[in-house]
């Protein structure tokens, strides 16, 4: 049951407006993936870099937990952090599921510690760190929430594309199948925390800033990876 619109209606609606306006699913990265212009080699190369965004994402999220004054609100974000870590099951870590996906598209990397991090990913991770650590709390929460919401639709798109192009069997869609379903809930957990502050003009401004920031850096990340 989707309770998102019941618990965070205004924040969710504004997030949708932003994602629709920037047309993130029409990003050139996804267009070339779907129309056949992106090769499997290029897709694999960019996804190997995206791995570093996947493994990093829970760190700024954890920083937010320590900044939230209300214990109940902390639980909403903490649940998200635990989900990223497979609820204490290492086999369920999101990093683990993504490595399985990379293997399914032919990646031969066994030790990512030996892979150079691209500036595109470093920039993305750095913005998340700054927004979740130093910006207004609402900026960080909104930023992370809209990325989660966008990734739900992006995951579904990527899953369809790689199956359509016969790069991956449906049964091997480890990471993207999971996130197409899970990240709507994850976004809800972020949006619910800040929905209560929507009527505060100053905090609403911070929320809108965070939503815009998250949409911008996520859209930019995929555009930059395509040029890498």
Please give the largest β-sheet: none
Work out the radius of gyration. Answer: 17 Å
Q: What's the helix count?
A: 11
Number of structurally distinct domains: 1
Indicate the mean pLDDT.
Answer: 89
By secondary-structure content and strand pairing, the structural class works out as mainly alpha
Count of DSSP strands: 0
CATH class placement: Mainly Alpha
Report on this structure.
The chain has 228 residues and is mostly helical. The protein has one domain: Heme oxygenase-like (Heme Oxygenase, Chain A, Up-down Bundle), CATH 1.20.910.10. Helices cover 75% and strands 0% of the residues. The chain has 11 helices and no strands. The protein has helices at residues 4-7, 9-22, 28-35, 40-56, 58-67, 71-84, 94-104, 119-133, 137-164, 174-195, 201-227. The radius of gyration is 17 Å and the shape is globular. It starts with a helix and ends with a helix. Mean pLDDT is 89; it is low at 1-6.
Helix/strand layout:
Blueprint: H1 4-7, H2 9-22, H3 28-35, H4 40-56, H5 58-67, H6 71-84, H7 94-104, H8 119-133, H9 137-164, H10 174-195, H11 201-227
């Amino acid at each position: 049951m989707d309770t998102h619109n019941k618990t965070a209606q205004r924040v969710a609606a504004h997030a949708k407006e932003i994602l629709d306006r920037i047309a993130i699913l029409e990003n050139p990265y996804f267009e070339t993936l779907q129309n056949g212009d992106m090769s499997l080699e290029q897709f694999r190369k960019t996804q190997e870099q995206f791995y570093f965004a996947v493994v990093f994402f829970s760190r700024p999220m954890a920083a937010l937990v320590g900044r939230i004054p209300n214990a109940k609100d902390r639980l909403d974000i903490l649940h998200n952090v635990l989900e990223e870590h497979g609820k204490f099951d290492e086999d369920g870590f999101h990093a683990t599921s993504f490595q399985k996906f990379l293997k399914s598209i032919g990646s031969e990397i066994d030790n990512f510690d030996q892979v150079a991090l691209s500036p595109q990913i470093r920039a993305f991770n750095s913005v998340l760190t700054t927004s979740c650590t130093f910006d207004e709390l609402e900026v960080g929460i909104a930023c992370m929430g809209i990325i989660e919401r966008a990734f739900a639709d992006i995951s579904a798109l990527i899953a369809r594309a790689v199956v359509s192009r016969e790069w991956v069997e449906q049964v091997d869609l480890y990471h993207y199948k999971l996130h197409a379903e899970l990240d709507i809930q994850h976004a809800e957990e972020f949006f619910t925390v800040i929905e209560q502050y929507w009527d505060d003009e100053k905090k609403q401004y911070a929320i809108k800033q965070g939503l815009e920031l998250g949409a911008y850096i996520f859209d930019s990340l995929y555009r930059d990876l395509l040029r890498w």
